[in-house]
């Protein structure tokens, strides 16, 4: 076949495949050419520039923001949701739906899935569709609140509900995240009950958690776990946020506090070894806390809103 004939045939195949939407099998039958030859020809058509495929990234307003976050912080995925409403509930709903879709895609039968607590994660569970039946195990990554917290946001509630949605197994925790005395915490940690949970923590393959900010001081959520007396200590220590009641500064460095030796929670270093460590958080006021978590590499997937993502990028330029 001379060059002109080859070029004419490639143009014909390109027209049939790209313009006429014909399958490779249909083209093969029409032209009397082996399907494998059609496949090689389509590859050559793209290589020679006969057909140029352009992805219109402008169709997704957030795609470029996701790519910037992934490159800047070495993330596996960034899921950025545009939000038109200023209402907190609306933001949590769209964020929860996006994260629920991610979980539906990645959870496998042999996974151990760890949860923290909070309104963001409650919305994720609410938005979960009924996925395939799974033998995954769902486990809390910290104890419960010592104060008053709406039961729908409690870690045990979330773990049980997630297991129900996936038709998996849930393991619950019956101790507070923060004990009044170090001795009480040490006694619990030495128990067989805790050892069983700790072994599951070592097997976590997917972790999903909220990111707290000291800007939450005075809110019902903050008071449920810490109370206002801890705030001054955290501020003096340059702390910007926490994950599972373990605090860090803007550089992502863990900072010891007066409650560190009284806390029952998965070690944040463990999160760095999970397949998916998914942080779910939003609001520009939380940007510093999210930046600290990203710099500490406690997450490899971030789910947040567009306005929060833009604030993170602006502050880390």
From TrEMBL:
Superkingdom of the organism of origin: Bacteria
One Pfam family matching this protein: Sugar-bind
InterPro entries: ArsR-like_HTH, NagB/RpiA_transferase-like, SorC_transcr_regulators, Sugar-bd_dom_put, WH_DNA-bd_sf
Keywords (A to Z) from UniProt: DNA-binding, Transcription, Transcription regulation
Domain Sugar-binding, residue spans: 59-314
Example GO molecular function: carbohydrate binding
Family from the record: Belongs to the SorC transcriptional regulatory family.
Record's protein name: Sugar-binding transcriptional regulator
